[in-house]
Amino acid sequence: MFARAFRELKVPLGVPSEVALLPTDLTEIRPLERRVDTLLRFTTPAGRFLLLVEAQGECDPDKPSAWTYYLAHAHAKYRLPAVLLVVCHDRGTAAWAAQTAQIGPSFWAGSLTMSPLVLGPDNVPVVTDPALAADDVPLATLSAMTHAKDPSIDAILKSLAAALRGIDEEDAHIFAELTELGLGNAQAAETWRHMMTLDPAFFRSETSQRLRAEGRAEGETSEVVRSILDILDVRSIEVPPDAHVRITSCDDLDKLRSWLRRSATVTSAAELFEA
């Protein structure tokens, strides 16, 4: 019947010699880890989409089907269009990854196709100049990822490391982590980790110091808030919702310390706030 339907639709399917009925339940009945290297959601004037990023160091015949699964699963989970970006370390791997994978049969290849965007040595320049790296940190990061097997990789990594010292620490950590992910299992990944560990001058900007100071202050504030509530609880003093919000939302450390001292002697939470 289905073969007849195909012929009616002008699909060139020959007469089948066998048709087997398979189980209709496609649920996974065993844990199956499917982990993409990086998954990002972009919001643009034209709408949202997902970007799946995979670092690929060599040809792997199992990857096209896995990448197709990643795209289909991400689309089904987030209900957003999805794009796959494959970052390759050499020209041969990049050429292989750029091929379109067809899941459908030859007579209807359009059932499901997977065509990734590919970054590799051919379309990303080598960045070994520290000034150029400092001027364009994203390009320097991509250069490190795509030229992991290039003889100049050490110079590329040194230029990138120097560039990261000149930007905000939070941004620098993101670029450093993306670089490590992009290097994958290449020997350059170990060089990069070693470089980040040994450089004592790394991440010393004024912004970095300010963020660390704010982090310490926030931690001390949280500790005092917790102590106030603990003391009131031990003394069986009820803390109404409005008082609880006032205590936990306060970021004035001096005021909190004053409330902490009072918490040992007050008979009600309201007395904490009396001038």
What do you see in this structure?
The chain is α/β, with parallel strands linked by helices. It has 3 domains: 34-119, Trna Endonuclease, Chain: A, domain 1, CATH 3.40.1350; 130-198, no CATH class; 206-273, no CATH class. It is built from 11 helices and 6 strands. The protein has helices at residues 2-8, 63-78, 91-97, 130-135, 137-146, 153-164, 169-183, 187-198, 206-234, 241-248, 253-262; strands spanning 38-44, 47-56, 82-88, 101-102, 113-114, 117-119. Strands 1-2-3-6 form a 4-stranded mixed sheet, sandwiched between helices. It has a two-stranded antiparallel sheet with strand order 4-5. Helix 5 runs antiparallel to helix 6 (153-164), helix 6 runs parallel beside helix 8 (187-198) and helix 7 (169-183) runs antiparallel to helix 8 (187-198). The radius of gyration is 29 Å and the shape is flat. The termini are far apart. Mean pLDDT is 83; it is low at 203-208.
CATH topology of the largest domain: Trna Endonuclease, Chain: A, domain 1
Distance between the termini: 87 Å
Mean pLDDT reading: 83
Helix content, binned percent = 40-55%
Count of distinct structural domains: 3
Number of strands: 6
Written as H for each helix and E for each strand, in order along the chain, the element string is HEEHEHEEEHHHHHHHH
| Radius of gyration, CA atoms, in whole angstroms | 29 Å
Choose one word for the global shape.
flat
**Uncertain regions spanning at least 5 consecutive residues:** 203-208
Number of helices: 11
Identify the CATH architecture of the largest domain: 3-Layer(aba) Sandwich
What's the CATH first level of the largest domain?
Alpha Beta
Largest sheet features: 4 strands, mixed
Strand content: 5-15%
Strand order of the largest sheet: 1-2-3-6
Give the helix/strand class. Answer: alpha/beta
